[in-house]
Write a structure and sequence with these properties.
The protein is of the alpha+beta class and 271 residues long. Strands 1, 2, 3, 5, 6, 7, 10 and 11 form an eight-stranded mixed sheet that branches.
């Protein structure tokens, strides 16, 4: 794929983001797309956002848990870039009118106090470099029609980033067992799902180490102050106007937010 095609696909995703619309899966438009090319498309998409005044403040790891892999039919992790405009205040809630076909997932976020560059990063290195961990909701979104995504599509689409919500409750990861800490997710006061840190690559810290080691050879470090979303510990949660979600992680605390407004497309997950 030449540079012109990379640019065209990245711009199409950016235009869909701005217009709250979707496009035909990229792999259907060009079945020859490679994973490297998909990440180059992602870079173009994110660069357009940055050029328009946004800024990169972290990274996310996607498609780490079996529940999400089975739902999407994507069986390897990916990563995307978090921007300042994606961060939502939990007390204000998530305005769905800025999204297309959103789904929520509950996870653990790491906020770094030190730079971290792979290869060779271990889970213990991640713990040492972390300032604190915090319960989080990521609201994933897709610019691909009907979520008909394979790995190339979700990678190009910045790992289906939408927005994210951080709790105001946090802990030092040296003070809790993030691997065995249980997670309970409630939707509108009823139990929706349960999970545990070990469901994410054996431990959320393993997932963050994987990403550091993946990005290091590409010349992309983790830097102090960045937010790293470690991957969902819940199945994808449909959300609509009026919904309220609460995620509780044992020994850590809760993340709670509400949803209002109407997304552009009702959306559905199609493996």
């Amino acid at each position: 794929m030449d540079t012109q095609a990379i640019t065209r696909f990245g711009d199409a995703l950016y235009d869909a983001f701005l217009g709250r619309s979707t496009i035909t899966p990229l792999i259907e438009q060009d079945p020859s797309i490679t994973l490297e090319e998909a990440y180059r498309i992602q870079s173009r998409f994110v660069a357009r956002r940055v050029a328009a005044g946004d800024s990169v403040i972290g990274k996310k790891i996607g498609v780490t848990s079996k529940a999400v892999q089975d739902m999407l039919g994507v069986y390897q992790p990916d990563f995307g870039q978090l921007t300042a405009a994606m961060k939502v205040d939990a007390a204000r809630g998530v305005d769905l009118s800025g999204l297309i076909q959103p789904k929520a997932e509950a996870e653990l976020a790491f906020v770094l106090k030190q730079d971290l560059t792979g290869p060779g990063v271990t889970a213990m290195d991640v713990i040492r470099a972390t300032d604190y961990v915090v319960p989080c909701f990521e609201i994933v979104d897709s610019r691909i029609t009907d979520w008909r995504i394979g790995i190339m599509d979700t990678v190009a689409d910045n790992a289906s980033c939408g927005v994210f919500v951080l709790s105001d409750m946090w802990a030092d990861p040296r003070d809790i067992d993030i691997t065995l800490a249980g997670m309970v997710v409630e939707k509108n006061g009823a139990l929706f799902s349960t999970g545990v840190g070990a469901a994410v690559q054996g431990s959320p810290a393993n997932a963050v180490a994987w990403l550091a080691n993946t990005l290091g050879p590409l010349g992309i470090p983790f830097t102090a102050g960045e937010v790293i979303l470690s991957g969902s510990q819940s199945s994808l949660i449909p959300v609509t106007d009026g919904d309220e979600l609460v995620c509780t992680i044992g020994g850590l605390g809760t993340c709670q937010t509400r949803f209002f407004g109407q997304s552009a497309v009702s959306g559905r997950i199609t493996p």
